Amino acid sequence: MSTMPVTLQDVELARDGLTDVIRETPLEYSRAVSEKVGAQVLLKCENLQRAGSFKIRGAYTRMSRLSDDEKSRGVVAASAGNHAQGVALAAQLLGITSKVYMPVGAPMPKLQATRGYGAQVELVGATLDESMVHAKQWAADTGAVLIHPYDHRDIVAGQGTCGLEILQQCPEVRTIVVNIGGGGLIAGIACAAKALKPDVRIVGVQAEQAAAYPPSLAAGHPVALQRMATMADGIAVGLPGDIPFAIVEELVDEVVTVSEEALSRTMLFLLERAKLVVEPAGAAGVAVLLEGVIAQVEGPVVAVLSGGNIDPLLMMRIIRHGMAAAGRYLSVVVRMPDRPGSLAGLLAKFAAEDANVVEVRHARSEATLSVDEVEIEVEVETKGVEHREQLLAALRADGYQPTVA
């Protein structure tokens, strides 16, 4: 443990510095998740932390340790949103000026909240990595201190205070599941948890289409991804940090991935069953539990909900996506003769199968349609995968040729 870049003592010192700054977030038992997993599952609700995520822990720890001269020069950061808010809030609390570079298209609530904490925000680049280039240049040009989102000992130590809370709240914990972006959170939690309870199993989770850690661990060093495509902007990091990577390589037992469909299903599940609003990145840990990705799960299990900062428009799309993935929402396209009664007959069929019609769209002018044809797209609510398949089978049996949109 002494060879680790961050130790238990570092994390404990960070905890002392965060007194009266952060909230000790609740550890909530989830009966719904536990029943599906077959083991006791508790949710560490960092989505209820100040600024909506765990990021204030590391940002404040790092910035509170700056010298007076460094503080006078201000700080700069690059972030997709949560680190931005953590830095902006920490700067406000410490009386430091802050500038944050965020990718173009960053979620509006995260952008507005960052500005609300007093940071100057500039939108540049399409990814966090591109924004980071500008942040580093600003630091070089102005002398501002770069507050890295994950690749710094103080950041990792600050995030590790979440691990101290988990062990305090659930000393008997056997498995901790944590989402991974750059690696700061899981590295900090691993440093604290493994020092206090060496036999605890720590599992990292990445989005399938933004998973830099599996190839990096296989190679033995951080490897950059060539492309990423995930709704989980909070963990869309193309290159692991050197400091977190060294800790993850040594202390984390397993790193797994989860699909976009699983993320959306899990967000919907947490909203409906746990009454918790969680962003896609924050749902990753629960998603792998619900999907059965981890071969053997020994309870009690703690899954970290890392953040809850989500654009309501994205939430609406994800709810619909999650319902479709769960077989509870169906968009179907049917071609039929363009004559009176055709639409009424189709809708009657949906009613007979107890499917609730949400929206209907006509298309008469498509080049692929015959002059006497109409294309109807119907969006319906269904009751699950079995009901959806029954509905499609009933349509086919009546001579329709439905295409799932």
TrEMBL record:
<keyword id="KW-0456">Lyase</keyword>
<protein>
    <recommendedName>
        <fullName>threonine ammonia-lyase</fullName>
        <ecNumber>4.3.1.19</ecNumber>
    </recommendedName>
</protein>
<dbReference type="InterPro" id="IPR036052">
    <property type="entry name" value="TrpB-like_PALP_sf"/>
</dbReference>
<comment type="function">
    <text>Catalyzes the anaerobic formation of alpha-ketobutyrate and ammonia from threonine in a two-step reaction. The first step involved a dehydration of threonine and a production of enamine intermediates (aminocrotonate), which tautomerizes to its imine form (iminobutyrate). Both intermediates are unstable and short-lived. The second step is the nonenzymatic hydrolysis of the enamine/imine intermediates to form 2-ketobutyrate and free ammonia. In the low water environment of the cell, the second step is accelerated by RidA.</text>
</comment>
<dbReference type="InterPro" id="IPR001926">
    <property type="entry name" value="TrpB-like_PALP"/>
</dbReference>
<dbReference type="InterPro" id="IPR044561">
    <property type="entry name" value="ACT_ThrD-II-like"/>
</dbReference>
<dbReference type="Pfam" id="PF00291">
    <property type="entry name" value="PALP"/>
</dbReference>
<dbReference type="GO" id="GO:0003941">
    <property type="term" value="F:L-serine ammonia-lyase activity"/>
</dbReference>
<comment type="similarity">
    <text>Belongs to the serine/threonine dehydratase family.</text>
</comment>
<dbReference type="InterPro" id="IPR045865">
    <property type="entry name" value="ACT-like_dom_sf"/>
</dbReference>
<keyword id="KW-0663">Pyridoxal phosphate</keyword>
<dbReference type="GO" id="GO:0006565">
    <property type="term" value="P:L-serine catabolic process"/>
</dbReference>
<dbReference type="Pfam" id="PF01842">
    <property type="entry name" value="ACT"/>
</dbReference>
<dbReference type="InterPro" id="IPR002912">
    <property type="entry name" value="ACT_dom"/>
</dbReference>
<dbReference type="GO" id="GO:0004794">
    <property type="term" value="F:threonine deaminase activity"/>
</dbReference>
<dbReference type="GO" id="GO:0009097">
    <property type="term" value="P:isoleucine biosynthetic process"/>
</dbReference>
<dbReference type="GO" id="GO:0006567">
    <property type="term" value="P:L-threonine catabolic process"/>
</dbReference>
<dbReference type="InterPro" id="IPR050147">
    <property type="entry name" value="Ser/Thr_Dehydratase"/>
</dbReference>
<feature type="domain" description="ACT">
    <location>
        <begin position="331"/>
        <end position="405"/>
    </location>
</feature>
<dbReference type="InterPro" id="IPR005789">
    <property type="entry name" value="Thr_deHydtase_catblc"/>
</dbReference>
